[in-house]
């Protein structure tokens, strides 16, 4: 049966490319690392690594195991934390991601209202930009996102409720090529516009009110 430790061993071997380097990182002897991997492979009935003369590399099954194993371990940790909270009489905590497009005054009022109804629940708020709220949901860092875009850039099934429509005003510098275009931009041109940021980009929908060239 595999555990958090065995997943840590597989991850170390995959990153270092050898059992000896992984053993050095984990402060274990190489034989212990090799034994852990071999026991795991026997339990799964598939090889996780392709053994070469000087190094090792994950097999397709190994890549899948490492990817899925991380999510399972994360779920196990959350379950353990929730069990401890229940045993201690706590209601737990709620983690939410809020896009920076939401006004701070609205957020402050939301937090006040939340604690008025759930004073024994810890509320953890992450401020995100652009698709960061979706990333936080996909990574399992939060259970709820506020201010997410309508298009879903990550995999998974999500339930959502509309907050309303948002109109964009796109403003360009006077020397920008768009500034030389007379009149409103066509939908074809407008659909190609995007706002770049530190965490990614968001494409401006053609349903916005207008684009101004200044």
UniProtKB/TrEMBL annotation:
A GO MF label = transcription cis-regulatory region binding
| Tree of life domain | Bacteria
Say yes or no: keyword Transferase present: no
On whether Transcription regulation is a keyword of this UniProt record, the answer is yes
Q: Which residues form the HTH lysR-type domain?
A: 2-59
Instruction: List the protein's name.
Output: LysR-family transcriptional regulator YdhB
Q: Which UniProt keywords apply?
A: DNA-binding, Transcription, Transcription regulation
Q: Which family does it belong to?
A: Belongs to the LysR transcriptional regulatory family.
Question: SUPFAM superfamilies under this entry?
Answer: Periplasmic binding protein-like II (SSF53850), Winged helix' DNA-binding domain (SSF46785)
A matching Pfam family: HTH_1
Please name the gene that encodes this protein: allS_5
């Amino acid at each position: 049966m595999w555990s958090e430790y065995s997943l840590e061993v597989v991850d170390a071997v995959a990153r270092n490319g050898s059992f000896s380097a992984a053993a050095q990182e984990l402060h274990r002897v190489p034989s212990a690392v090799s034994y852990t991997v071999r026991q795991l492979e026997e339990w799964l009935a598939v090889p996780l690594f392709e053994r070469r003369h000087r190094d090792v590399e994950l097999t397709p099954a190994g890549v899948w195991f490492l990817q899925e194993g991380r999510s399972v371990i994360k779920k196990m940790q959350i379950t353990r934390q929730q069990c401890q909270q229940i045993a201690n009489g706590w209601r737990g905590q709620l983690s939410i991601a809020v896009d920076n497009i939401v006004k701070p005054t609205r957020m402050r009022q939301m937090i006040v209202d939340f604690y008025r109804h759930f004073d024994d629940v810890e509320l953890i708020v992450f401020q995100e930009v652009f698709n960061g709220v979706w990333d936080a949901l996909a990574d399992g860092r939060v259970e709820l996102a506020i201010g997410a875009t309508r298009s879903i850039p990550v995999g998974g099934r999500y339930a959502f409720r509309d907050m309303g429509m948002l109109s964009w005003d796109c403003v360009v510098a006077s020397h920008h090529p768009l500034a030389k275009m007379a009149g409103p931009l066509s939908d074809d041109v407008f659909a190609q516009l995007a706002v770049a940021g530190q965490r990614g980009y968001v494409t401006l929908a053609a349903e916005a009110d207008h684009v101004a060239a200044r």
